[in-house]
């Protein structure tokens, strides 16, 4: 059965064509632009990989290289974000990320394929690649989510190296500075997020996604954000599309952001419309302090149409294919 939105669009196109012919004002250039409505330039180009923020560029490149090697979209979204987990300059992903208020870095990550299989880990210490541990949860356990010491134990039993627990030089410097005031304000810096969420579509139309973060800087010990919560930071369904989120996790969890976007696409919204609706919903639930909140969503449907929208300006994402990889600025509500 054709997608309701697409069949609606093609009916509309037929109607426009008909009425133009009926009025006999057919100017070739105009009829051409009507026959081909404006769509993102990459629609139809598969595989397609999208990821949040500037580090998305090298992450996309790593994902595409992996896809060339194995042809497996789950391998691609895992390997892609591992590149960011390895990036020592990133203070919001991986063990080099900023610590919680006790000075301990804890990580959250998730992974999901288009058949609804998923895994996640949260509040995990000393594991360099939490996304790979999330994949272990998905593929080797009967569970979806394992947290804290249990996740670290799983890593040990699966042969993951356990890293020494010490802050990276940049994180240590920032933490020492923060400690002077020790102000506990879980307000996310509006322009400088670094969590990576990645969603991808392979040449056969299979979708997958991953998300990994060290979460909010100076969070309460034990705090978990949206990134490892399936449906909040990430959701994928081969029948419809995929979505991922970045920003203040609490605001994203409250509206089940990524799940909402996939469900809106199922009802016929484009990825762009769905992301905008999710942001509107998030704003309406956080009216009191919305000026201090940044959250951004990134979505793709199974046809390769892309959408992105954020609460505040400054959100961008990387869009990559076999032929190119580029940064795109998202639109925002404010
Ligand atoms: C969190 N969503 O833990 C993450 C933080 C984030 O860019 O996206 N930072 O709430």
UniProtKB/TrEMBL annotation:
One GO term in the molecular function aspect is:
hydrolase activity, acting on carbon-nitrogen (but not peptide) bonds, in linear amides
* GO cellular component entries: cytoplasm
Point out the annotated site residues (description: Cleavage). 194-195
Q: Which residues form the active site?
A: 195 (nucleophile)
CDD domains (alphabetical):
Glycosylasparaginase
Coiled coil residues, start to end: none
Give one Pfam family, short name only: Asparaginase_2
Q: What is this protein called?
A: N(4)-(Beta-N-acetylglucosaminyl)-L-asparaginase
Q: Where is the signal peptide?
A: none
Query: The organism's lineage?
Result: Bacteria, Pseudomonadati, Bacteroidota, Cytophagia, Cytophagales
Which residues bind substrate per the record? 223-226, 246-249
Which domain of life does the UniProt lineage start with?
Answer: Bacteria
The family database entries (InterPro entries) matched by this protein are listed as: Ntn_hydrolases_N, Peptidase_T2
């Amino acid at each position: 059965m054709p997608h309701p939105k697409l069949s609606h669009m093609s009916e509309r196109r037929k109607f426009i064509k008909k009425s133009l012919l009926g009025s006999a004002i057919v100017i070739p250039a105009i009829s051409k632009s009507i026959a081909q409505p404006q769509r993102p330039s990459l629609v139809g180009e598969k595989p397609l990989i999208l990821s949040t923020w500037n580090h998305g560029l090298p992450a996309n490149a790593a994902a595409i290289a992996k896809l060339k090697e194995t042809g497996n979209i789950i391998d691609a979204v895992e390997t892609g974000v591992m590149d960011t987990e390895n990036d020592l300059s990133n203070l919001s992903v991986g063990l080099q990320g900023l610590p919680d208020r006790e000075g301990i870095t804890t990580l959250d990550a998730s992974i999901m394929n288009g058949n609804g299989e998923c895994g996640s880990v949260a509040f995990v210490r000393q594991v360099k690649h939490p996304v790979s541990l999330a994949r272990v949860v998905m593929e080797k356990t009967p569970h979806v989510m394992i947290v804290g010491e249990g996740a670290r134990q799983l890593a040990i039993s699966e042969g993951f190296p356990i890293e020494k627990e010490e802050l990276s030089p940049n994180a240590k410097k920032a933490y020492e500075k923060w400690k002077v005031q020790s102000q506990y304000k879980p307000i996310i810096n509006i322009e400088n997020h670094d969590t990576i969420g990645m969603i991808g579509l392979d040449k056969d139309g299979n979708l997958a996604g991953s998300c990994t973060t060290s979460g909010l800087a100076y969070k309460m010990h034990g705090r978990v954000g949206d990134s490892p919560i399936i449906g909040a930071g990430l959701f994928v369904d081969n029948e419809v599309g995929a979505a991922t989120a970045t920003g203040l996790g609490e605001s994203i969890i409250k509206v089940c952001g990524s799940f909402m976007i996939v469900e809106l696409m199922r009802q016929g919204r484009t990825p762009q419309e769905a992301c905008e609706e999710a942001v509107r919903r998030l704003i309406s639930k956080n009216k009191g302090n919305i000026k201090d909140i940044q959250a951004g969503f990134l979505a793709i449907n199974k046809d390769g149409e892309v959408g992105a929208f954020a609460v505040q300006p400054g959100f961008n994402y990387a869009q990559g294919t076999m032929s190119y990889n580029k940064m795109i600025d998202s639109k925002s509500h404010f």
